[in-house]
Amino acid sequence: ATGAYPKRVKVVEVGPRDGLQNEKNVVPTPVKINLINMLSETGLQVIEATSFVSPKWVPQMADHTEVMQGINKLPGISYPVLTPNLKGFQAAVAAGAKEVSIFGAASELFTQKNINCSIEESLERFEEVMKAAREASIPVRGYVSCVLGCPYEGKISAAKVAEVSKKLYSMGCYEISLGDTIGVGTPGSMREMLTVVMKEVPVGALAVHCHDTYGQALANILVALQMGVSVVDASVAGLGGCPYARGASGNVATEDLVYMLNGLGIHTGVDLQKLMDTGTFICNALNRKTNSKVSQASCRL
Amino acid sequence: QEPQASGLPEYIKIVEVGPRDGLQNEKVVVPTDTKIELINQLSKTGLPAIEVTSFVSSKWVPQMADHEEVMRGIERHPGVQYPVLTPNLQGFYSAIAAGATEVSVFGAASESFSKMNINCSIEESIERFEEVTKSARNMNIPVRGYVSCALGCPYEGNVVPDKVAEVSKRLYSMGCYEISLGDTIGVGTPGSMKKMLEAVMKEIPLSALAVHCHDTYGQALANILTAMQV
């Protein structure tokens, strides 16, 4: 129901990784570093910096080591990086990473197409990462893709999402980010999915990662907040298109999210103006228009 | 409307404002034939209400200069309402002469906006609308009332919920069957939407309320969801 909203929300900025990874144009390493440094000045507490995957798979993240070593790491800010396997994890730690993320999915077909193995096999790989992370005292965040729909399988059962989330949480992930990868979710399906997942994972360990492909992101996030979720992923300027729908948008824009949270009186610690300035910078560098409505509206004033 | 288990209404009436509010604010002016075709296509989608045009002077709103032709030219599907804007009695008479069977009047919750938009105070605009609703009542023509700037004004900034409630109540009392609350510049968020609706609902039954949200800051669907949850 429309009861209380959380008093504080932690905004996890995924622009430099999820955003840039899904942009047509590749930006040079110094631009990536500057983007992250600017984001570090906005009040954001978590900024996903890069991905330690093979450049064969993800060329846009080929400079992961340089980026990790080049950014200013401000105290109090976390700079997690993606590590799909033990090799990536070791490279990440060698490059100075202090937090990592692993990416599961609630869909078998998606897992096959995305990382070339089954869900079960992917979890085995992650176990290796978890073991090494535990030994190194490195926190691990778990992502579950396709929580509200899959580009290949279509409908995804909430029970499956709960099952994969529970496995990642039991393995030791401190937080599970539930991703509406193709943005097909609506407040109804979000509510249904969270109700089932919250039976297996405490709400304090849940985050939502909504795509705005069908314009539903903020409405879906609102419902998640009403159910007690207090961690939301977003991407500055709404960076990152949709690899499954040409021309469609992807991540929800951090500016639009912060605008909504400000209006609700929810504390984020984020300076909206500084965030918009960062968005302007990276859009110029990418030679593209911003996907943030707040940014578009603010230009006219 | 009985709420479902989710607390949301089972049915939502969608009022399509594209042909009027939409086209009026587009840079490119479309030919009359295109407007008629647009409305005819919309009539086939199942929409229960389609705002057709605006009977205002073409001096003020050139995009709606062809109001008469459009009104006469469209197909009228049974079960579909085709309201038109009528800012004053003169516009109302023209609308009726052209075949309109429902009209809308446009108030605002901000004095500055009222002056800049229709060149008079809120009180003066209410007087004009009363002339319209009086004639409309005599002819059994339903009137819908709009309140602009319900969540913020481009000139005044913040708008007090009680002011929105006051203007809404005036329009409702004079005979408007429905009041559409417009977030004209899209600055509203779920918090301000809820506060505004709570104030307005003290004066007007929920079933007589509609929301008209602009997506200027990307907040529209979240604000609409909030309105549905109230």
Automatic annotation (TrEMBL), chain A:
It is found in: Mitochondrion matrix; Peroxisome. Residues 9-276 form the Pyruvate carboxyltransferase domain. Pathway: Metabolic intermediate metabolism; (S)-3-hydroxy-3-methylglutaryl-CoA degradation; acetoacetate from (S)-3-hydroxy-3-methylglutaryl-CoA: step 1/1. It is an enzyme of class 4 (lyase). InterPro entries: Aldolase_TIM, HMG_CoA_lyase_AS, HMGL, PYR_CT. It comes from the Eukaryota. Keywords: Acetylation, Disulfide bond, Lipid metabolism, Lyase, Metal-binding, Mitochondrion, Peroxisome. Its EC number is 4.1.3.4. Mitochondrial 3-hydroxy-3-methylglutaryl-CoA lyase that catalyzes a cation-dependent cleavage of (S)-3-hydroxy-3-methylglutaryl-CoA into acetyl-CoA and acetoacetate, a key step in ketogenesis. Terminal step in leucine catabolism. Ketone bodies (beta-hydroxybutyrate, acetoacetate and acetone) are essential as an alternative source of energy to glucose, as lipid precursors and as regulators of metabolism. This is Hydroxymethylglutaryl-CoA lyase, mitochondrial. The gene is Hmgcl.
TrEMBL record, chain B:
Residues 12-230 form the Pyruvate carboxyltransferase domain. InterPro entries: Aldolase_TIM, HMGL, PYR_CT. One of its GO terms (molecular function) is hydroxymethylglutaryl-CoA lyase activity. Gene3D superfamilies: Aldolase class I. GO terms for biological process: ketone body biosynthetic process; L-leucine catabolic process. Pathway: Metabolic intermediate metabolism; (S)-3-hydroxy-3-methylglutaryl-CoA degradation; acetoacetate from (S)-3-hydroxy-3-methylglutaryl-CoA: step 1/1. Keywords: Lyase, Metal-binding. It comes from the Eukaryota. Its EC number is 4.1.3.4. The keyword Chaperone does not apply. It catalyses: (3S)-3-hydroxy-3-methylglutaryl-CoA = acetoacetate + acetyl-CoA. Belongs to the HMG-CoA lyase family. PANTHER family: 3-HYDROXY-3-METHYLGLUTARYL-COA LYASE, CYTOPLASMIC, HYDROXYMETHYLGLUTARYL-COA LYASE. This is hydroxymethylglutaryl-CoA lyase. It comes from Pycnonotus jocosus (Red-whiskered bulbul).
